[in-house]
Amino acid sequence: MSGSVNRPVRRRTFVLGSAAAAGSAALAGPLAHAASAAGFGYTDDGTNYVVDTGASLVFKVSKSNGDLTSLVYKGTEYQGYGGMNSHIESGLGSSTVSVKQSGSTILISVTHGTLKHYYAARSGENNIYLWTNKADTSVSATRYIVRVKKGLFLNDEPDSYTYTTSTIEASDVFAKSDGQTRSKHFSKRRVIDYDYIGWSAGGVGLWIVRSNHEKASGGPFYRSLLRHQSADGGGLYEILYYAQNQTEDQRFGLQGPYVIAFTDGGAPSSSLFPGTLTTSWADSLGISGYVGASGRGRVAGVGITGRNTAYPYTVGLANSTAQYWGSARSSDGYFSIGGVLPGTYTLTVYKSELAVHSTQVTVSAGATTTLNSIAIPSSNDPGNAGAIWRIGDWTGTPSGFKNADLMTYAHPSDSRAAAWTGNVVIGSGSETSAFPCYLWKDVNSGLLVYFKLTAAQAAAAHTLRIGVTTAYANGRPQIAVNAWTSAIPSPPTQPSTRSLTNGSYRGNNHTFTYSVPASAWLTDTGQYNVLKINVVSGSGAASYLSAGTSIDAIDLLA
Questions:
Q1: What is the rounded distance in angstroms from the CA atom of residue 170 to the CA atom of residue 315?
Q2: For 67-97, how does the pLDDT look when each residue is reduced to its tens digit (9 = 90+)?
Q3: What is the CA radius of gyration of the chain?
Q4: Which of 18, 65, 115, 470 has the least C-beta neighbours within 10 A?
């Protein structure tokens, strides 16, 4: 059962899923079936527990370490590359592994110190349901990776480096001969943007359907690696905690289920998606840390006022043990977030990715906490402030700035990137699109913005604001206006890892404010004032790894 490496392969890939696209999936969801499909059951081959789902999927789990050692779908082996199995992190090592069958469910339990991991199979389904309970930092378990044999799926997407081996940064960012860049980090997607990740070719789809991420960290807008592919094979990930550009401490406890799903080439069933998947069949399996639907609550808000309806709004719930989120309805701001563990949470309302309101909310098991209409104070949204001029929109993102879209799936050195240098003229009509989304000390520090003021405006002091979304190596802006120079601001708290070069602009949103005295302005209203923005820091390396920052918006207040 070594597979079909030499069979024709269609290059076709699905990254972002939706319920509407899932109708064509075959045997991909929790199905209504007889107590046991033909062949459903497990055996012990001495080294592995071998599970036959009674559909088209047979898989093996090592009895010694809990690795997924075989993944055979319709007679073809999909698991493994480079001599490595599919597993938590890079493998747990010696573990206690057991198996039991409860009616139409088979559960394999893996215990390694304080960590517990589970695989479940349902009769007649081509799915494997996985849970991971990380209790503390004694085990470095941050991800599950499904390793897939080479040749079964091919793609040349941003998160693939199948066709290039030229390393341009660390050991994980590559450049093709045409100057385009590739890296497993270049997924494009925030957590809120996808339900599943994987590949489809030759009438077979292999997917990971993500969990609800209630025990993950980083919130709805966090970006992490989702998959990769190289000449050796491919990997699909469920990231439970990843320290790269991370804004929160990791959470502990049971995470899942996330699902390895095979289909006939279509998307996985929407019945597997987070927020849709129901697992009452797992209530009595004895999974450590498991809380069924009856032990969870819901938060619902009748509406949100004070919104700028040009932007989407998201409502997040977070405390030290769990996180959840949901979209606010565009017409009135209504939202509903279900499946919430009991506790007290900080509720945050985001305009795009910018926090504009927060409050506390308590959730009880089996109950809905209903909130009256939430009013966002006008002063909470910096976009409401009157400005003489503004570059960009206050959204908590660099959206609209030069190269902003590209930077979620490419390195700044990519041949598709527009020049990172170039100055900006207020009133040109291209202020935002001409302003680079990122500024670095070694690349484009010293960028100039030209603007004119009326006599009345030039007679008064004004506040200039620069909003940033993250920074690398404590990079922060120091400004000069004509002959006046600001003090060097203190660096805000930001993640210490790479960010701007691996597809993520998401850190801690921060606004720098500069009080510019009236004496700084030119008195000749026909002349351009010149704003110079330097990036300062004593840290960082060189070029795109020098100190840098991502821009949200810049404005001069009236």
A1: 36
A2: 999 999 999 999 999 999 999 999 999 999 9
A3: 26
A4: 18
